[in-house]
Specification:
heterodimer, A: 812 residues, alpha/beta, Dimethylsulfoxide Reductase, domain 2, Rossmann fold, 6-stranded mixed beta sheet, 5-stranded parallel beta sheet, B: 194 residues, alpha+beta, Phosphorylase Kinase, domain 1, 3 domains, 4-stranded antiparallel beta sheet, 3-stranded mixed beta sheet, 6 helices, elongated, binds iron/sulfur cluster
């Protein structure tokens, strides 16, 4: 989230796409309701807000929304694109914000173009874009050329305007299935949000990310928000609701192939030293008013990370042990891991609190991958569908040669440490209970394994043992590091004085500082662990002095306890809040006050040399047009890989031309279904009573939602002769499930591209392990929803397309 | 951690008294409620936790008591009324967190399944840690690439993958990230993408 949960109460208008917060994030949803209902505040001030929910399925979120739009899954780019078009055609954008805070005036390379669904630079043979032509048109000094009148046809503003001209209400309706009249009602409401005294938030979840166009689905919302001047403001932003307790925190810590802690890029082959790495990875300063804070400090953060990991073995002479960092040339994400496993290229896999067999996609391929491993280690508090895959119903254990280890791990209440929530609030928790049975903490298991490995390398030698030999383990007990010690290591310190730092601004690139994760520098300064702070709503007047819900002394949020990111953009050029009733920060004449400023705290905005507001970007402004995406600089609607219709915008380039087709690359047979065989659109969803697959171990929750089902619209059920409670088989090209039918009015017919289309929805939570599976053992083998989903990924992130695929439905 | 100050308890009884009062049966329900609460969490240790499920990040208060045999009894988990995130509220998942915490369905000992075997064996920690360490070393040594085809230094392990961490504390995730990268692992993933 750019903002945070409580901040949603500050909005005038809330757009919810690809999410169902009333059911999936129920307690977060109280802030949506406060925006709407809080009688003490009133319109424009945290009360009287309107909610618009666009979703394939009418849910409890829709029930309390002011407008519900039944949208075809995976078509939100068309919806946001239509809104962008409406705003620009009616001159409803926030003109001052757009001109000064976004790249709207900057000119783009003259070779850039977009034609028949393809951007310039496309290579059909490799299904890849060369993005050179998506860059800025630079002047002699290397700064982007600009036209502050926004009239030059090569400026970003005009390119965006032209791009979205095609997204007329008719076109939006043809793609999404939303009736034009409803769409126009939304457009009118959204159109008002470009006023300085209005603010809108967009909230989304995996309903936007889990598509082959996931990155662009989100960017299309961000472009709309930037045009309306709503990024950086309380009550605004692009807000992702995340589904697991610490999915945010351990993204920050880079349990993800493409980043190092603190969102530093992983180094690539050919980068010979740190300077070379920084040159390739850090954003470059473009224009004299850009601070380029991240780019400028990239080396300091990298060297401090290496000092933290390799201590005295990281010296200026050896380039701070840069060689110890592994270099990866190609994607190494989830789908790639299982693709390699199927090819026999993966020997071992460790799964920790994550079960591949249930997650999928395309479970039969995942099972094939698991079966081809030499060894599988599952560290978990409970048995999972992965620890048990070798004797899953339908598997022959004798044929599975994978050696499997199930290591009992402690869970959340048996250890301390912090969780970072969706709003970036880092909240410390106590250890409440001792470990159950012989369970051990995950980090102690790692520490122990590490010491055993180190000994093996010392005794027997082996490949490149140097990083193991020199990895810092400066803990009181290296076999049992305390999470408190690790929190201090993440925060970092000055190596001369030994004192912990209060801000990452103090980090150096000469080896005199260490910090394991610069984003968390400041959480644990000398005065103590700020994530433990508890000044909350017990005294609102004292603990929320601005009244904006920042609660600066409740826990801590990254970066530097800032509660709303990019908040320099919440004030105008002179430092006055766009809306004084909802100030993010403001300039007093001497300093910035309010939230922790995303800007130098004493920089006078009227100084002609003052930095542009988006200090993390090389341009100093936000990107309406971006060359950092691999599937296009402007979001464009592409159909899901399996779709009932051809793309009405460009039928010859119907789905993403750069989505990564694993099966094709590997020479495996095609596993996509066609609408003739599989005419029904399916999507998956979550229920309030369950969280992913873990809650199958909690009897009370299983009692509340005991059995899996497929939700079908009444008309389709009639066609198929189905009634609620009937057993139904749902098939895709890849697999099938057999579950009960739930016939409901929450789904309904859609009219898209001249065709009537049915959508069905399937909750994801069941499998062959857990309380429900023990109650219905004969049925449970057909409960894995991801048996249906396709093994294909978004071009940017390789996120699988869990949320849009084709099926057939029949009575069992 | 702190011993219960009675602050939350008093809040509860105040609500109880307002809402229930003297019942039609003629006795003071608020008093009965108070006695029940007192029996349950009187003298208990109050600790702070966070809901283990979604990333709203609702704060929890957990009450525990040490038993005579030295074991710890978890008495109650409830929403923390002081949190600006949840203000004491919990959804059905957070509200049943106690069952997850006190589960009789846990894996309590290391288990091992040999290639082709049809059953688990219960084994010791030393057995699994030695075997897994040896596997990691063997796979790492077999699949480690110091230089790629073009002669560029890469120092990476191509044959081992790790996925997990959305249920870890930050500091555990950081530690895993550090240790795994020292081994040269690049196939690293967590729940964010899937
Ligand atoms: S109580 Fe419910 S809404 Fe709150 S964090 Fe837990 S799962 Fe999420």
């Amino acid at each position: 989230m750019t903002n945070h949960w409580r901040d949603i109460k500050n909005a005038d208008l809330i757009l919810i796409n690809g999410a169902n917060p009333a059911e999936a994030h129920p307690i977060g949803f109280q802030w949506f309701m406060r925006a709407k209902l809080d009688p003490q505040r009133g319109p424009g001030n945290g009360g009287g807000a309107k909610i618009i929910h666009a979703d394939p399925r009418f849910s409890r979120t829709s029930a309390v929304s002011d407008l519900y739009l039944r949208i075809r899954t995976g078509t939100d780019v068309a919806y946001f694109g239509g809104l962008i078009n409406y705003v620009l055609q009616h001159d409803l954008h926030h003109a001052e914000y757009v001109k000064h805070y976004t790249n709207a005036p900057l000119l783009i390379n003259k070779d850039f173009n977009f034609k028949d669904g393809l951007f310039s630079g496309y290579d059909a043979a490799t299904r890849f874009y060369n993005v050179t032509s998506w860059g800025y048109d630079l002047d002699g000094s290397g700064s982007p050329k600009r036209d502050d009148s926004l009239q030059n046809p090569r400026c970003v503003f005009q390119l965006i305007k032209k791009h979205y001209e095609r997204y007329t209400p008719e076109m939006v309706s043809a793609i999404t299935g939303i009736p034009q009249a409803d769409f126009l009602k939304v457009a009118e409401m959204v159109g008002e949000m470009g006023r300085a005294d209005k603010v809108m938030t967009i909230v989304y979840a995996v309903g936007l990310t889990h598509h082959t166009t996931g990155g662009q689905l989100i960017r299309s919302g961000a472009v709309l928000q930037l045009l309306l001047g709503n990024i950086g403001r309380p009550g605004g932003g692009m807000n992702a609701e995340r589904g697991h307790a610490n999915i945010q925190g351990n993204t920050d810590n880079a349990l993800s192939w493409e980043i190092l802690p603190g969102y530093l890029k992983t180094p690539a082959p050919g980068q010979k030293n740190i300077d070379d790495y920084v040159r390739h990875s850090a954003s470059k300063k473009l224009g004299e008013f850009s601070w380029n804070f991240f780019g400028t400090n990239y080396k300091k953060f990298t060297v401090s990370l290496l000092k933290s990991w390799y201590g005295n073995a990281a010296t200026k002479q050896n380039d701070f042990a840069f060689d110890y960092l592994p270099k990866i040339a190609e994607n190494a994400s989830w789908l790639t891991i299982f693709d390699r496993a199927m090819k026999g290229q993966m020997e071992g896999l460790m799964l920790e609190g994550m079960t591949a067999t249930s997650i999928g996609p395309d479970v039969s391929q995942i099972l094939e991958g698991l079966s081809k491993l030499k060894w599988l280690v599952v560290l978990d508090a409970f048995p999972t569908t992965s620890s048990e895959f070798w004797h899953a119903p339908g598997m022959d254990p004798a044929a599975v040669q994978t050696e499997v280890f199930l290591l009992p791990a402690t869970h959340w209440i048996e250890k301390d440490g912090a969780f970072t929530n969706s709003g970036r609030w880092v909240q410390w928790k106590d250890q409440v209970l001792p470990p159950q049975g012989e369970a051990r903490h995950d980090h102690w298991i790692f520490a122990d394994l590490f010491q055993r490995l180190k000994l093996l390398y010392q005794q027997h030698g082996g490949k490149f043992p140097d990083p193991l030999m020199h990895l810092t383990m400066d803990y009181a007990n290296p076999l049992r590091p305390e999470l408190d010690e690790l929190a201090q290591e993440m925060n970092g310190k000055d190596l001369k004085s030994g004192k912990r730092l209060a801000t990452f601004v103090k980090l150096q690139d000469d080896g005199s500082t260490a910090a394991g994760n610069w984003l968390y520098t400041g959480m644990y300064p000398e005065k103590g662990n700020l994530a433990k702070r508890r000044d909350g709503v017990q005294d609102i007047a004292k603990n929320d002095p601005t009244g904006m819900g920042f609660f600066p002394n409740w826990a801590w949020s990254w970066p530097l306890n800032r509660r709303v990111m990019y908040n320099r953009a919440s004030a105008d050029l002179e430092g006055r809040p766009w809306d004084p009733k909802r100030a993010g920060i403001k300039w007093t004449g001497e300093k910035w006050v309010g939230d922790v400023p995303d800007y130098p705290s004493k920089m006078n905005p009227k100084d002609p040399k003052a930095w542009a507001p988006f200090i993390m970007n090389g341009e100093g402004v936000a990107r309406l047009f971006s060359n950092s995406m691999s599937d296009g600089p402007i979001p464009e609607h592409y159909e899901p890989m399996e779709s009932p219709v051809k793309n009405p915008l460009h039928p010859d380039v119907s789905s993403s031309p750069v989505a990564f087709l694993y099966d094709k690359h590997a020479g495996r047979p095609d596993r996509f279904g066609t609408p003739d065989e599989y005419p029904i659109v399916a999507t998956t969803y979550r229920l309030t009573e369950h969280e992913h697959y873990l809650t199958q171990q909690v009897r009370k929750l299983v009692e509340l939602q005991p059995e899996p089902f497929v939700e079908l619209p009444e008309g389709l059920a009639q066609e198929k002769g189905l009634q609620t409670g009937d057993m139904v088989r749902v098939r895709s090209k890849r697999g099938k499930i057999e579950v009960r039918a739930l016939v409901s009015k929450r789904l309904g017919p859609l009219h898209v591209a001249g065709k009537n289309v049915w959508q069905v929805g399937i909750p994801i939570h069941w499998g062959f392990v857990g309380v429900a599976a023990e109650m219905y053992p004969e049925k449970a083998q057909h409960w894995l929803v991801n048996a249906l989903t396709p093994f294909v990924g978004d071009a940017n992130s390789r996120t699988p397309e869990f949320k849009a695929f084709l099926v057939q439905v029949e009575k069992v | 951690m702190a011993t219960v100050s009675r602050r939350d308890f008093l809040k509860l009884t105040a609500i109880g008294a307002g809402a229930i009062g003297v019942s039609e049966l003629g006795f003071d329900m608020a008093h009965a409620y108070e006695v029940r609460q007192q029996l349950r969490i009187a003298g208990a240790t109050e600790s702070h936790s966070i809901c283990p499920y979604c990333a709203v990040g609702c704060s929890l208060i957990a009450y525990t008591r040490k038993n005579a045999d030295g074991s710890t009894a978890l008495l109650q988990i409830e929403g923390d009324p002081d949190s600006p995130v949840n203000e004491g509220r919990l959804c059905p998942k957070g509200a049943t967190a106690m069952e997850l915490a006190n589960s009789n369905r846990r894996v309590e000992q290391p288990k091992y399944r040999a290639p082709g075997a049809s059953d688990w064996q219960t084994v010791s920690w030393d057995f699994v840690l030695d075997k897994v360490a040896q596997h990691i070393k063997d796979s790492r040594d077999r699949t480690f690439v110091t230089k790629d085809h073009d002669g560029k230094v890469v120092n990476r392990c191509d044959g081992i993958a790790f996925a997990g961490g959305a249920a870890f504390s930050n500091e555990e995730g950081y530690f895993a990230s550090k240790v795994l990268r020292s081994l040269g692992l690049v196939y690293l993933e967590q729940q964010a993408r899937v």
